[in-house]
């Protein structure tokens, strides 16, 4: 797909010639982090202000040119990649970060601000959403996907951090409500609707975000367990008994073995147990409560920043593990707590039933029902692997997307999770926000 010459010139007049990328300069914007999804785009347009975003959208809407909004391009389901030749609208130049309001613990950030920069905005405050890609993941993209991460247990998803939102509709109209009020029942909460909409309703330009107090006396522990059931019981006990619990993650020997072989990381515990639970807590008594919980199980406990970072590296590098040995399929799923053990124990055999030589790596947020399923197929990647996993999840009353979104990866399986009445409602909402259907038109029903 090529842009009309007059539109290309007009867009360059809005954002500057240097911010309309074409040809080889677009390559990094047209492939996702996993390398599974790649497409092409006639141009990457990089506005540097809200008026420029307005103008670009209005022009594209008038011309009927489809576009894909893109933040840090760290998505895992192909939702931010121009798979059908769309224009890419990159928000990376919207990088203004306002001053932190210490009384409210809030800050206003533009869409291109990275999550790690947000977390460092004030010495007394942190940001509640922590994901492995936070060095490049941006506020706009995290809102668009309703990102979760390792602290959802304590602070909730990205939607829970929103205290206000500014966004631009497809026709260039700006909607803005950045008051930061905790209580504000003056109409529809369109910010919550846009969060998780994968760039299909509006382009996020700024957000008013709630920060959280920086942890005091944080303690990180990793314990070795005999099986997944024991790991789940330990994590659920931690939720009940460890007052300052912030994170509860599980890891398995399969994934750590890949990190050992491919990245040279030693196993965290002697004997290499089959399953591990990583716990983090803060505040008075955190060390003692974690120690009592773990008991005489093999474990490592860290209080210094460097030792905590060393333990967290095992969890944070696991998303890379499958990618070391092939092009991975990444499926983030969740089930009710009562069915978590069944899912965690059954997902590997379910994949092996359709591809006996596939490599399956599981890990995730064990205390909130999540399993991250990363697999490297041996048989053709023709949907059989996704079908095996997602059908299993649906049979257990779960969600086919706990955090990453639907994107291109899971669109054909959306009926497993949503009724026809719901998907028809999705389409009606899309048409209300974007009548011409130019915003990420191949993601979610329209």
Give me some keywords for this one.
single chain, alpha+beta, Uridine Diphospho-n-acetylenolpyruvylglucosamine Reductase, domain 3, Alpha-Beta Plaits, 4-stranded mixed β-sheet, 4-stranded antiparallel β-sheet, 17 strands
Global morphology = globular
N- to C-terminal distance? 21 Å
Measured on Cα atoms, how large is the radius of gyration?
22 Å
Strand content: 15-25%
Number of helical elements: 15
Unreliable sequence segments: none
CATH architecture of the largest domain: 2-Layer Sandwich
Describe this structure in words.
The protein is α+β, with helices and mostly antiparallel strands. The protein has four domains: 5-93, Uridine Diphospho-n-acetylenolpyruvylglucosamine Reductase, domain 2; 106-213, Uridine Diphospho-n-acetylenolpyruvylglucosamine Reductase, domain 3 (2-Layer Sandwich), CATH 3.30.465; 219-319, 2-Layer Sandwich (Alpha-Beta Plaits); 326-421, 2-Layer Sandwich (Alpha-Beta Plaits), CATH 3.30.70. The protein has 15 helices and 17 strands. The chain has helices at 5-15, 50-63, 115-119, 139-145, 152-155, 158-161, 190-194, 228-241, 253-263, 286-294, 305-316, 318-325, 340-354, 384-395, 420-433; strands at residues 20-21, 44-45, 67-70, 87-90, 106-110, 125-126, 162-168, 174-177, 203-210, 212-213, 219-225, 245-252, 275-281, 299-302, 329-334, 359-363, 370-376. Strands 1-2-4-3 form a four-stranded mixed beta sheet. The protein has a four-stranded antiparallel beta sheet with strand order 5-9-7-8. A hairpin with a 5-residue loop joins strand 7 and strand 8 (174-177). Helix 8 (228-241) runs antiparallel to helix 10 (286-294). The radius of gyration is 22 Å and the shape is globular. The chain starts with a helix and ends in a 13-residue tail after the last helix. The model has no long low-confidence stretch (mean pLDDT 94).
